[in-house]
Every structure is written in structure tokens, then in C-alpha cells.
Write a structure and sequence with these properties.
The protein is an alpha/beta fold. Helix content is 29%, strand content 16%. It has one domain: P-loop containing nucleotide triphosphate hydrolases (Rossmann fold, 3-Layer(aba) Sandwich). Strand 4, helix 4 and strand 5 form a beta-alpha-beta unit.
Length: 283
């Protein structure tokens, strides 16, 4: 972020550009080792933690049931289902303190600030969706702040550990309660492969994991279905890293094609892993 507060000064860092998955994991390991070369790694053991301490240290929702601070949520669908519009709508409704997507399960009594990062669309396309949403809510300005990557001089923003730290700085400076990344593949290093679990795990931990550690924001990331039509392309590390995955499907019985069936699949410990479906209509 420059002195004017503009996010367009965030540019890509060449740290991992063009590296294959093995080289990517090795480079990140070398960087991690170099940062702690002169110090022994910390071993933190907590004993006899009181119940009252644990009760006061619970996950803090930005959008209850959907977006939790210092956690990531994946929203997946086939292309053209409406992830971009849905994520923009979620940010606007959270900013206004409204139930997200009209679903009372995703209602919050507070208003929260969101930063929307788009790595695939021109600002004209983003404005196309936003202008219709703003008319719906009778707004004259967009309550969600935008980082349109395609409008920057570089035209890309590769989410390396360096750029993740810079993005975390922008989030803290906002400050923002939530970050929307549209989509994950648009900010991934070009040499990385979805099917390599080591590379994916290393990338997630050194980028989204870094943002989760250095900020108090919730992260929502749009991802694509795989070729078989199953939620979330790539290895199981995507779903394992996130708190939950929300799969959007266009309902066949919907005449206007706007009714979606989100299926929540919690992936954190303590959940049964069963799916919950709820019909929500885009506004």
C-alpha cells in the first residue's frame, strides 16, 4: 500500500515464479530455515489450561456459520455458476449488516469491512456486477473496497509469501474484517500443480496461512470444480486447510437459474463431516 492508501501499488514478487512443485517446496523450506538460522525453533507446550480460558478463546465469526476470523472458507462451483456475484453480494451484505444471501444462518448483528481481490476480470466486468447490486440496495458507492489485479501495471499478483505479507499489511492498515480472493488459481504461482500435495500444502501455509497468522481477518476464496464436477480441484489439502467448503450448484428446477444449493462441508476437527444443504436465492 502506498502513501495514498491505494492497493494498486501491490505488485507481483518473482520469488517463486516458474518453479516446479519440488523446487517451490524446497525454496520455501530454505527461506523458512534462513529466517531461523540463528535461533532454535520454539516448542510451545500448554499444560493444565483452565476451562474458563478455553471458553473465552473461541472462534470469532465475521459471518456466523460462513466466515470465521483467522480461518479460510472455499466457495467452489463450475464456471458460470455465479461465484463472483455471490462473493461480491456476501461482502456488501456483510458491510450492511444484512443476512448474507438472505439466509438467516449467515446473519450478523454487526457491520464488517471487506477487501475484494479479483485476479481474473477487468474493472468493467466487476463494475457490471457491482452496479446491479448497488442499485438493489439503493447505494451510491460501493461499501466493499476493491483490488482489481488486472488493472495494475503488471496485470498479475502472484501470491508468494512476500506478497502475502504485503497483503496482510494492507488488511491491517484498512483495517478489514474479511478478505475475498476471486479466484485462487488467479494468484497461484504459474509452475505449481494442483495434483502435488506437497507443493499445495507448502503454498497454502506460506500464503493464506501467513495472512491468517498476521491479521484478524476471515478469508473467503473462490475455487473451481474439477473436471469430474466434484467440488474443489486438486489435492485434499485445499479442503483440509480451509474451515469449510461451500459448493454452489445451479438448481435444475429453478426456471430463472438463480436458485443455488450451497452444501456446507465442515472440515475442521469436531465436525461430523456431514453435508448441510440450504436453498438461497441471489438478490
Amino acid at each position: 500500500m502506498d502513501d495514498s492508501g491505494s492497493l494498486t501499488s501491490l505488485i507481483t514478487s518473482p520469488d517463486f515464479d516458474g518453479l516446479d512443485p519440488e523446487a517451490l517446496a524446497e525454496r520455501q523450506a530454505i527461506q523458512a530455515e534462513s529466517q531461523d538460522a540463528d535461533s532454535e525453533p520454539e516448542i510451545l507446550i500448554l499444560k493444565d489450561r483452565p476451562l474458563v480460558t478455553m471458553q473465552s478463546n473461541q472462534p470469532d465469526p465475521v459471518i456466523p456459520g460462513l466466515a470465521i476470523r483467522r480461518n479460510s472458507t472455499l466457495i467452489s462451483s463450475a464456471g458460470g455458476t455465479g461465484k463472483t456475484c455471490m462473493m461480491l453480494q456476501a461482502g456488501i451484505e456483510s458491510e450492511l449488516g444484512l443476512p448474507v444471501w438472505g439466509c438467516e444462518d449467515f446473519a450478523s448483528t454487526n457491520r464488517h469491512r471487506w477487501l475484494y481481490v479479483n485476479g481474473e476480470d477487468s474493472l468493467q466486468n466487476i463494475d457490471y456486477w457491482l452496479s446491479r447490486l448497488l442499485l438493489k440496495y439503493e447505494l451510491n458507492t460501493c461499501p466493499v473496497d476493491l483490488f482489481p489485479i488486472c488493472e495494475t501495471q503488471a496485470g498479475q499478483f502472484i501470491l508468494t509469501s512476500t506478497n502475502a505479507a504485503r497483503l496482510a499489511g494492507a488488511i491491517n492498515a484498512g483495517p478489514y474484517d474479511g478478505l475475498i480472493i476471486d479466484t485462487g488459481i488467479a494468484v497461484m504461482p504459474p509452475g505449481i500443480k494442483f495434483i502435488d500435495p506437497i507443493a499445495i500444502r507448502a503454498w497454502l501455509r506460506s500464503t493464506l496461512g501467513l495472512i491468517q497468522r498476521q491479521t484478524n481477518a476471515s478469508i473467503i476464496m473462490g475455487v473451481h470444480d474439477n473436471k469430474a464436477g466434484q467440488p474443489v480441484s486438486g489435492t485434499a489439502d485445499w479442503s483440509s486447510f480451509s474451515r469449510l467448503a461451500l459448493h454452489l450448484e445451479t438448481a435444475e428446477e429453478s426456471a430463472d437459474g438463480t436458485t443455488l444449493s450451497p452444501k456446507l462441508r465442515p472440515t475442521c476437527a469436531g465436525h461430523t463431516g456431514s453435508s448441510r444443504s440450504s436453498e438461497t436465492r441471489t438478490r
